[in-house]
Amino acid sequence: MSFASVLLLGFIAGGTILLGLPAGRLKSFNPTLRSFLSMLAAGILVFLIVEILGDAGGDAAESLKTPDKLGAGVALALLLAGGLAFGLLGLVWFEQRLLRGKSNAGPERLSFMIATAIGLHNLSEGLAIGQSYAQGLRGLTLTLIIGFGLHNATEGFGIVGPVVQQGKRFSWGTLLLLAAIGGGPTFVGTLLGSLWTSTYLSVAVLGMAGGALVYVVKELFAGVRKESRQVVVMTAVVLGFVIGWVTDLVASGAAG
Questions:
Q1: What is the distance between the alpha carbons of residues 67 and 186, in angstroms, rounded to a whole number?
Q2: By CB count within 10 A, which of 39, 72, 79, 255 is most buried?
Q3: What pLDDT is stored for residue 103 in this prediction?
Q4: 8 Å CB contact between 29 and 23
Q5: Can you tell me the distance from the alpha carbon of 174 to that of 166, in angstroms, rounded to the nearest whole number?
């Protein structure tokens, strides 16, 4: 597998996020269906929080178990905590300072926040692809690309979920911009990871992605707090989590 081929496949793995974004062009939804789809997106994002913080925490925990790697473990734990705080509190500060009071920035604002959080997550995925290539693990590189591509295909709707829930629509240009923010970092990570790898950078990025996702999930749940059919919307959360889990199993099974 050539370097150019890896970069192309890394681009495709991030580009599959486009598969879910056209939902942002749909004209109308039944209110309950809108809430269901919004919570489906929330379920996917909840899974992503569990996945990425579990991965980052695992790196720190493994180092802490080994006496001669104790310093590295502490550093990784601090990077994870710092990244989590930065991702969560950074979005809070951004909203309060720059976006409060803009009545037309509600669901669109949240969609861009979700795209940014997913982009940070996808940067770490790209780093994993690049690292496996740099280590000469060609088969693993390809299976990671396939698995991440399948996973990213479910994340597109997570981005447009807040807008769909409000019955609004995105322009095609905005959808392409969201795709670049959410999926583009996969390609960037693939490029960087193939040239230079760092566990510390990966953990910090995962922490920031987790913190950002915690914030946007909170916002998604706030949007359906007055929905009368709570059993329906909570079922969507479970279903979204399962969708994210199954696509991750495909990636893990292929890598194994």
A1: 34
A2: 39
A3: 45
A4: no
A5: 17
